[in-house]
Amino acid sequence: MTTSELAEPRTPRRREVIPEATVARLPLYLRALHTLADEGTQTVSSEALAEASGVNSAKLRKDLSQLGSYGTRGVGYDVTHLISQISRELGLSRRCSVVLVGVGNLGRALAGYGGFASRGLAIDALLDADRAMTGEQIAGMTVRHIDDLAQVVVPGSIGVIATPASAAQEVCDLLVGAGVTSILNFAPTVLNVPADVDLRKVDLSIELQILSFHEHRKSLA
Amino acid sequence: MTTSELAEPRTPRRREVIPEATVARLPLYLRALHTLADEGTQTVSSEALAEASGVNSAKLRKDLSQLGSYGTRGVGYDVTHLISQISRELGLSRRCSVVLVGVGNLGRALAGYGGFASRGLAIDALLDADRAMTGEQIAGMTVRHIDDLAQVVVPGSIGVIATPASAAQEVCDLLVGAGVTSILNFAPTVLNVPADVDLRKVDLSIELQILSFHEHRKSLA
DNA sequence: AACTGTGAAACCTTTCACAGCT
DNA sequence: AGCTGTGAAAGGTTTCACAGTT
């Protein structure tokens, strides 16, 4: 309360902390905004952007208000400006290094996935433990052996694990050892990491099982 | 209030409705339980199962209590029994039909993904719009043309979309037209479906963007 | 008139802490 | 003694509804 009175903040003040639920939706908004921008749309209302993102408009407004006041009452949001604000918030402005381990079908799918590149999250290196893969060209990159890990990791790199479950913990340990502090795990297994490492997971079969649950429920009614 | 007084329920009464957050974790517990069963473990405490599932034990106990009282105080949960209860709840007991559209890298990864088969959710049919793919053998299945959709869909089938974003809505409409009421979408686009169709989505790049956000935050501190 | 930004209410989820069973 | 099952408290998220701005 003592320091903030002299320097009146000029930039719209961002919240100290953005709710996780909001963070998880920012990529959705960003995708919809990119589509709108490609169509030449310059301004969009919360209603229209919400529709394009698959959420409801009150939620969208609340989410965006967490970042600051980037809209104009009576008008809407400027598409380009909002893209750059959300990108900055997500840390996508300064291109960030992504290292992918495991070039089976899933790894290949990820390597070729346009969604990454267009968001400043292009994969920089492909690694595999299988020497038979080494040297192969995938999506314009040469597969390197996992032993080269230390050479491709830079501070702030994100590691992506797309190996079989049986190899995932070992790969995870190697990544952590090389200094990676953010890991995305696609292998269907629980990984143990030190407390300072940020670990997220995607299990391809979980959503299918959730659908199965609902389908099952329908058949009971 | 009038009908329930005569017939005292014998089976542990399940809740009318299981919270979504709980449903989303049941697959995690199931995976951990299968691992334990494979290791020959017969009984497990909430503490141990929670650890193996990557959640905390209070949450796990609350979740399991939503299904009924399947544990024994002072002892823990019977692994085999709990597997069958959760499987039944998720509708995995009676094998359910899954139709996958799009056999690019992601589709191939999904087709070969062991996690489905071991949970009673094996994929039954592979379809693609590209006639060049038709007839190809993938994971023991023959790829069929999308025009054959009506012949492979049965009531209660789940549809999985693993096509490029540009084709997703069209494929979605075809699935709905063929009678599919549960759809899992891997394409990075918002799909429109009738209200009675259950739609879920997995966006491979969203988790990566969330990690980027946290990594970015770290670098600010 | 149109649309954002936001307190307040409603709802859902997690965590706590302990009663109750084996 | 050990561990589950669960009310109650705490925390987080969504929705409502409208004041405020262009």
Overall description:
2 copies of one chain form a homodimer. Chain A has helices at 20-38, 46-53, 57-67, 79-90, 105-112, 114-117, 149-152, 165-177, 206-220; strands at 43-44, 71-72, 76-78, 98-101, 123-128, 137-138, 141-145, 158-161, 182-185, 198-201. In chain A, the strands form 2 sheets. Chain A has a 7-stranded mixed sheet. Chain A has a 3-stranded antiparallel sheet with strand order 1-3-2. The longest helix of chain A has 19 residues, at 20-38. Chain A folds into 2 domains: 20-89, Arc Repressor Mutant, subunit A; 96-206, Rossmann fold, CATH 3.40.50. With 221 residues, chain A is α/β, with parallel strands linked by helices. At the A-B interface, helix 1, helix 5, strand 9, strand 10 and helix 9 of A face helix 1, helix 5, strand 9, strand 10 and helix 9 of B. The structure holds a DNA duplex (22 and 22 nucleotides).
List the main descriptive attributes of the protein structure presented here.
homodimer; 221 residues; alpha/beta; Arc Repressor Mutant, subunit A; Rossmann fold; 2 domains; 3-stranded antiparallel sheet; 9 helices; 10 strands; 43% helix; 16% strand; disordered N terminus; DNA-binding
In short:
The structure is a homodimer of 221-residue chains. Chain A has 221 residues and is of the alpha/beta class.
How is the secondary structure organized here?
The structure is a homodimer of 221-residue chains.
Chain A: H1 20-38, E1 43-44, H2 46-53, H3 57-67, E2 71-72, E3 76-78, H4 79-90, E4 98-101, H5 105-112, H6 114-117, E5 123-128, E6 137-138, E7 141-145, H7 149-152, E8 158-161, H8 165-177, E9 182-185, E10 198-201, H9 206-220
Parallel strand pairs in A: 4-5, 4-8, 5-7, 8-9, 9-10
Antiparallel strand pairs in A: 1-3, 2-3, 6-7
Helix pairs in contact in A: 1-2, 1-3, 1-4, 2-3
Chain A binds a DNA duplex (22 and 22 nucleotides) through residues 19-22, 45-47, 56, 58-59, 61-62, 64-65, 69, 71-77.
